[in-house]
Design brief:
heterodimer; A: alpha+beta; 4 helices; globular; B: alpha/beta; five-stranded mixed beta sheet; four-stranded mixed beta sheet
Chain lengths: 122, 594
């Protein structure tokens, strides 16, 4: 990225970053977000993240973006995994272990069907 | 007739059979033979236990009455080892009622308003583009190109933002003081030393949205005329420190930190300084001493940091949450911010909710919300549907507020009037099973531990209070103890050097005020009403309810329980160490605390 020398430069970077995000949305890519703050990691988020990456590799899945984020505030439900499918609302899952992650990836991310029993409402 | 100590009932409901119930029985028997348990554990077939459509095959172990589901053949060796050899329940396979699952996963958090936490969970903290895409650093751009430092300070003043570290001093005013102060360079400091047990808001913001803090600091530096900043974070927060360092590098590489920011003649740079995690280092004068490389001890004020701070130069210290609010105030305007909140406390506040509440975690709500709304609507109520007893606000220096304060609006003034503080936003919720004398003792143990020892009232006074509270909890309380405690609280509060000492008596003062009857029960009746203080309770087995299952006797670490099989057991009070394991294990609620 070039250095920002003025407010206009910054605005350009913002536009590009926004464009990248919109491209992600319109390119039909699916997003899986794992909460990787201290609480999440203590609750096993690293294992969950690793499981997700393993599943994607094993099953040769494409067009899935796996991202990290901080703790969203629902500590008692960590590890938390969120799934955003193109054009759909974000779905938040709680207490996700490796096994549950597999179900979420195969059923929801690939199959498009929300795994209701793991979902956190609200 | 052979005598079996345990019976396993396996469901041979058609569905379970189809799911392999008979295989399970064979493997179970083989495994019991292998472990030499076949003469002690009998495997029986039964019709239907749970809902085999959903979870079968089902299995029930008596006398404990544990219901296992979802078993496969390969789980059996582990189960046999845990359940029959080691005598403990294999939690992983225990049947979980479905209703519980639904209830647990429905978390109504409708009363939250997210300003500081807005980006957390949305952006990748390690990717500056994510932050910029959501108008990140736009507030900095606006300030540097359209506003003078004085105008910036005015917006912050008009917004009504007050320090989120606890003292609640108007942020704009603080910035005006340092701007007016003489001396160069001026330092911008972020207090990220979060030492309260039960508080984690700062860590959360630093880990999830580090750029909002950095941007807030750069704006503050512009307003104050500062060229160098420090973020003081404890070493116990390694992920926060790491995230911050990466974020600072990214901003610097982009030219948002360093020389001539955004092509203007304003320059500012930032460093992370790690502390060893001493509670007193959250106190601003001690924090500055620590950055200078000295012992983290407070010094008397004045002079205030705005005049003589870090290395005797004008310095400004704000909390993580305070800085994180700044970019949003600049972008959305002072009026927007001031429209949220209550009387003299504007905006939102994050609370770290912990203790006996259903949904623990970090929340952000507008000022003026009541404790009842926070605990019941956002927090989901008290765990295990027990009764609410008290809530401690503001960390170890806060007071414990009883039921009558549930409708208290949360803001700096109301909490102060109620004998507590807002502090850094810790909320420890306590249910009916909490002993308030024991809680006061616990917090005093903490402050006594963390006292730096520089001033006598805090060093010696907290020690004396702790001794008295410990004595009361041990059933050796004396009639004059309550007066002595009150006297010590006053003295420590008035004569201590810093906030740690001044606030240390708060838990004792507030529990004395609201829960005096519990102190009296301990002192005069040698009784702990909440049945917590070990010296004042004993465990007894209720005759008639006990089935003689031997579970308690087998698990008692002190071998204090004896009795014949199928006969009522007894606890030897002299041998009992009051660990409570028997009470937790007893499936028949036959053990009582007296």
């Amino acid at each position: 990225m070039p250095t920002v020398k003025s407010l206009d430069d910054l605005k350009k970077i913002r536009e590009e970053a926004l464009k990248k995000q919109q491209m992600k949305e319109t390119s039909g890519k699916k997003e899986v977000i794992v909460g990787m703050g201290t609480v999440g990691i203590a609750a096993g988020a690293r294992e969950t993240l690793k499981a997700i990456l393993d599943i994607i590799e094993e099953d040769n899945l494409e067009d899935i973006i796996v991202r990290q984020t901080g703790n969203i505030g629902l500590d008692s439900f960590e590890p938390i995994v969120q799934v955003i499918l193109p054009g759909q609302e974000k779905v938040t899952y709680g207490k996700v272990n490796g096994e549950m992650a597999r179900k979420i990836i195969t059923k929801h991310v690939v199959g498009g069907e929300i795994v209701k029993e793991y979902k956190i409402e609200g | 007739m052979a005598y079996f100590r345990s019976h396993v009932l396996v469901s041979i409901d058609p569905v379970c059979v189809q799911k392999g119930a008979y295989d399970l029985i064979h493997v179970l028997q083989d495994e019991l033979v292998k472990q030499g348990l076949i003469d002690e554990v009998e495997v029986l077939e039964t019709s239907r236990i749970g809902n085999p459509d959903k979870e079968g095959p089902d299995l029930m172990v008596y006398p404990e009455g544990v219901h296992y589901t979802n078993l496969t053949v390969k789980d059996i060796p582990f189960l046999v080892e845990e359940q029959f050899l080691k005598g403990r329940v294999a939690e992983a396979f225990v049947h979980e009622a479905e209703e519980n699952l639904d209830e647990e996963f429905s978390a109504p958090r409708s009363k939250e308003v997210r300003v500081v936490l807005k980006n957390i969970g949305v952006i990748d903290p390690l990717n500056i583009e994510d932050y910029i895409a959501l108008d990140g650093y736009m507030a900095l751009g606006k300030v540097l190109t359209e506003m003078t430092p004085e105008e910036t300070i005015q917006v912050v003043l008009d917004s009504g933002l007050r320090g989120r570290g606890g003292a609640g001093f108007p942020t704009g005013l603080k910035w005006r003081f340092i701007r007016a102060a003489e001396g160069e360079p001026k330092y911008m400091i972020c207090n990220a030393d979060e030492g309260d047990p039960g508080a984690f808001a700062n860590r959360r913001v630093l880990e999830g949205d580090p750029h909002s803090v950095i941007e807030g600091m750069i704006i503050g530096a512009y307003a104050a005329g500062s060229s160098q900043g420090y973020i003081y974070c404890r070493a116990e927060y390694p992920i926060a420190v790491q995230t911050l360092k990466i974020a600072i590098d990214q901003s610097r590489n982009l030219g948002l930190l360093g020389e001539n920011i955004l092509g203007t003649d304003f320059s500012f740079d930032l460093e992370v300084r790690m502390g060893a995690g001493a509670f007193v280092c959250g106190e601003e004068t001690a924090l500055m001493a620590s950055i200078e490389g000295k012992r983290g001890e407070p010094r008397p004020r004045p002079p205030f940091p705005a005049q003589k701070g870090l290395w005797q130069k004008p310095s400004n210290i704000n909390n993580v949450e305070t800085y994180s609010n700044i970019p949003k105030i600049i972008l959305n305007g002072a009026e927007w911010f001031a429209s949220m909140g209550y009387e003299k406390s504007k905006g939102t506040k994050t609370f770290s909710m912990a203790g006996d509440v259903k949904n623990t975690g970090l929340i952000e709500v507008p000022f003026g919300i009541t404790l009842r709304e926070i605990i019941y609507d956002v927090g989901g109520g008290i765990k295990n549907d027990k009764a609410f007893k008290a809530v401690q606000t503001g960390g170890p220096m806060g007071g414990c507020l009883p039921v009558k304060y549930l409708d208290l609006p949360m803001d700096y003034e109301s909490l102060g009037k109620a004998g507590s503080i807002l502090g850094s936003g810790g909320l420890v919720v306590m249910d009916e099973d909490t002993c308030m004398v024991d809680i006061a003792r616990f917090f005093m143990e903490f402050t006594q531990d963390e006292s730096c020892g520089k001033c006598t009232p805090c060093r010696v006074g907290t020690r004396r209070i702790l001794e008295i509270l410990t004595r009361i909890c041990e059933g050796k309380g004396r009639p004059d103890d309550i007066d002595t405690l009150r006297y010590l609280c006053e003295e420590i509060n008035e004569n201590s050097l810093c906030g740690l000492g001044k606030g240390a008596p708060n838990p004792v003062k507030s529990t004395l005020e609201h829960f005096l009857d519990e102190y009296e029960a301990h002192i005069y009746e040698k009784r702990c009403p909440a049945k917590v203080c070990k010296s004042l309770i004993r465990f007894e087995i209720i005759d008639g309810t006990c089935t003689g299952c031997t579970l308690c006797a087998r698990n008692c670490p002190a071998n204090a329980i004896s009795g014949e099989r199928r006969q009522t057991h007894v606890i030897d009070p002299d041998a009992c160490i009051k660990c409570g394991i028997c009470e937790q294990l007893c499936p028949y609620d036959a053990i009582e605390i007296i």
